[in-house]
Amino acid sequence: MTEPVTGGAPATGVTGSPGGTPASAPGIRAAAPAATPSGAGRRRHPRRRRLVSALWPVVASLAVFVLVWQFIVLVSGFQSFILPGPLTVAERFVRAWTDGTMWPHVQSTLVEVLLGFAIGASIALVVGIALARSPLAERLLSPYLVAAQATPVLALAPLIALWFGTGLLSKLVICTLIVFFPVAVATMVGVRSVDPRLLEMARSFRAGSWQLITRVEVPAALPAILGGMRVGVTLAVIGAIVGEWAGANQGLGVLINIARGSLFDIPLMFAALLQLAIIGVTLYLVMLFIERRLVGER
Q1: Residue 111 in domain
Q2: Which among 121, 246, 234, 252 is positioned nearest to 177, based on CA atoms?
């Protein structure tokens, strides 16, 4: 007995809607709408908002500081050789750069700061790891480190200039001393705070001492180390100025002394102080950028 043939419309592939519009096949998604420029702009807006929210307090506080400074000058009636106004300092700052007065001193101070910071931070990193890993080294070196930190660098600067001369070497020694302690302490604390389970896991893979230091301890302690370096790079600027006051031929510390003394150019002295502040803030921001690139925002 043969089966009856059922009737009906012949199959035409994928059936559509009653209106004749083809329906999508199962498993096939409709094409996503193309990204519009407005959508890309909306994705960029959060970054702009974060930048604006981070910058406006700084700009506002700077504006308030300048206005208060100008108000004090106007109310007190001080002459420019006692307390120059912000406009006078800005004009003298620009003139010191255009006539070539500022750059030689800035160059000398920058060399002292960068070299002194590099040397001091490198030595402090090694000593800090040694102090963290060896209780004997901590007992032997800690009293001397604390005593050296408790002694003001300003009191040691004349002796250092006497022993090492008034050239670059004495400035590097002073910068190294002032940078060393915060970086060494931050390194020691950071290495000691490494999770013991990380060390145990590394030892289970038969990692040696050098591998533990370079692959586990230093990367885990990097936030603390870089935090100490942020402090150290600003202290290096102070060390360079102290060294220049103890004896030098060039540098922003020398320019401050010349402007205050023989020239009696107080606006130039304020311009040199402004340049020092710019150097310190710039170096701090550079270290902050490096820290965020390496360990992210915290």
Answers
A1: yes
A2: 121
Q: Is residue 79 part of a domain?
A: no
- CATH number at 155 reads 1.10.3720.10
Domain that holds residue 133: 103-295
Residue 84 belongs to some domain of the structure: no
Residue 193 makes CB contacts below 8 A (sequence gap 6+) with 221, 224
pTM of the model: 0.78
> How many domains does the chain contain in total?
1
Specify if 280 maps to a domain.
yes
Q: How is residue 83 annotated by DSSP?
A: S
Neighbours of 189 (CB within 10 A): 17
Q: What is the pLDDT along the chain (298 residues), one digit of tens a residue?
A: 444 444 444 444 444 444 444 444 444 444 445 545 555 445 556 777 776 777 788 888 888 988 998 899 888 888 888 889 899 999 999 999 999 899 999 999 999 999 999 999 999 999 999 999 888 888 888 888 888 888 888 888 999 999 998 889 999 999 999 999 999 999 999 999 988 888 888 888 888 888 888 888 889 999 999 999 999 999 999 999 999 998 888 999 999 999 988 778 899 999 999 999 999 999 999 999 999 888 876 6
